[in-house]
Design brief:
By secondary structure, the chain is an alpha+beta fold. The chain contains 4 helices and 7 strands. The strands form 2 sheets. Strands 3-4-5-6-7 form a 5-stranded antiparallel β-sheet. Helix 2 runs antiparallel to helix 3.
Amino acid sequence: MLDNVVRSFDEDSPFADAGATTTTHRSAPVPIFSFDKFRQHFNAVPERKWEVEVLKKLLRFAQMPEGWDSYKAPPMKWDVGLFALEVLNRVMRPRTPLPQVVPSSAGGVQLEWHEKDIDLEVHIAAPYECELWFEDHRGENSPVSVELSNDFSLLQRPIALLSSR
């Protein structure tokens, strides 16, 4: 009587094909795992919640009064803030940590990451006038200190490293 017992499984079950029919002589069910949905979600482009956080800070920096640092520093220029957003849009990856966003005393903005044994700073003084500082404290990559104008490819590797550690 146990020879023809049929058990139904949900199609999404990891055991969907294994052991659906039981007999007196059956082997142990072999789970069939598919991580396709997990990989698709894990590698998906983030919802870009970072944009909201960064934009809030940039708006606040652009509205600061003259002399906000007590040394006659101007507020951040609007074009600098927009350019900073554009740079981040080009380099941010899924699981890239949110940068610290700090105004500079020259009307610019600095994007900083200090975590995972990495120090990465991008100072944006004006659109296409930027400086990049990068140091990997694990010694796997050479330190970088360079001016950037319109080619931000040197920023790709540090961001990839920061996103993968």
